[in-house]
Amino acid sequence: MARGGEPTLITSVQRALRLLEAVSEQPAGTTAKHLSRRTGIALPTTYHLLRTLVHEGYLEKLDDGAFIIGEQVAGLHSAAQGQGLRSRIRSVMTELRDDLNAAVYLARYDDGEVVVTDIVDSPRTPRVDTWADFKEAAHATAIGKCLLSGLSRAERADHFDRYPPADLTPRTITRIRDLIDGPEHPVVTDSEEYSLGTACMAAPVLGTGSPMTLAISFPARKLTGTGAFVPPLCAAAGEISRTLALSGDFPTAG
What we know:
By secondary structure, this protein is α+β, with helices and mostly antiparallel strands. The chain has helices at residues 11-24, 32-39, 43-55, 71-100, 142-148, 153-162, 176-181, 230-247; strands spanning 59-61, 67-69, 103-110, 113-120, 188-191, 198-205, 212-219. May be an activator protein for the gylABX operon.
């Protein structure tokens, strides 16, 4: 840190960023001399920074000597969009956690598997102890049941062929016919089927390329009073659905 608490800044990095900004303002590209005049950076320094940016893929030099934005910048832009989308969705989940005093989960059915993509919890609202892999326990969780309800009966049958339902607790439902028929209501609840003492509730997130769900977990003793949980859970799932409809499908790790 510099004196007075001001951060120590790297001048060469600042100059490189100014050059990137100046290039982005010229759709057809621009020359080193123009960039030097536009940014006030000395021409020799401009050439040095441009060569570095071209080497790293952040700029591309055309045959006529003009510079344009490179593919690395496009990659950063795409990553920023994905991170921004995740941040907006996570804020909805955080608000729901605080509103219902419950851990919140976002999950999707991806290539035949149950995948939990995000969890928002806290010391007061801890996540469920995942002692059994959710991929193998779709039959025993509201998350899994909600995701499977978005599939056809044949697809659900295929899932249970690959993952035969097992007794995880004395309350686990394992009858194949009941599981394939699936829940009749959009909001799915499990009570101590996955973990004794824990209940879970899940609502579908609509408009995605594959089934997705927003879910909450909480102590099973609260289950009798969860009627008030349904409207906020459905509202949050609806908000995430609208966010994804505007932004495209949820980004997945590459």
